[in-house]
Design a protein that fits this description.
single chain, 190 residues, mainly alpha, 2 domains, 2 strands, elongated
């Protein structure tokens, strides 16, 4: 709108924040005020407002569609025998621990076993395993890259996944609540 209504600037100055950036365009206040009083300005501003409202409405529609898709997605958490779930959770944890060594050179993998795991850690690993491996959690979120409403969809999906795990494994419900609370509020202060 500035270029359309005011044309060339009255003065060019070096950008005060970034010297390598294009020069700052400066306009006389009288020219700006005269342009803002013009019928042309009102017409251009009204058209911009219509485009902005249409873009907001489209974004809201896309957000609702994404949330409806996540709400309708069936989430099935298969019921595993306790010893099978523990073994699978520890194996999953050990794989993730090995992957961390590739991401962070200072990380040294520390394999665990079902027998060596503390009970709180084993419960956490079970929930993590179920969340990552036995649901389509990651697959569904990958499909939302760049989608409008992705953050809200991620939160809705997270809540649904934890609820499904807690329903299938009532003994893990407290850990599901703890993880959900930590993801929403951050870890408790040390």
């Amino acid at each position: 709108m500035v270029r359309q209504l005011l044309g060339e600037p009255d003065l060019l100055r070096a950008n005060p924040l970034f010297h390598s950036a294009p020069q700052t365009r400066l306009y006389l206040i009288e020219r700006v005020e005269a342009a803002e009083r013009s019928d042309r300005f009102r017409a251009v501003a009204a058209a911009a407002a219509r485009r902005s409202a249409a873009a907001r409405a489209a974004a809201l529609r896309r957000r609702r569609e994404v949330l409806a898709r996540i709400a309708a997605e069936p989430l099935e958490v298969p019921r595993l025998a306790p010893d099978r779930l523990a073994t699978a959770a520890v194996e999953h944890r050990n794989r993730r621990d090995e992957e961390r060594a590739y991401e962070r050179w200072s990380h040294v993998p520390d394999p665990a076993t079902v027998e060596s795991a503390e009970s709180d850690a084993l419960v956490r690993w079970k929930v993590n395993y179920l969340r990552h491996r036995l649901t389509r959690y990651d697959e569904l979120l990958d499909g939302l890259q760049g989608s409008t409403g992705r953050a809200a969809a991620e939160e809705l999906l997270r809540r649904r996944v934890y609820a499904a795990i807690a329903k299938a494994y009532p003994e893990l419900a407290q850990e599901c609540e703890r993880q959900l609370r930590e993801r929403e509020c951050g870890p408790p202060p040390a």
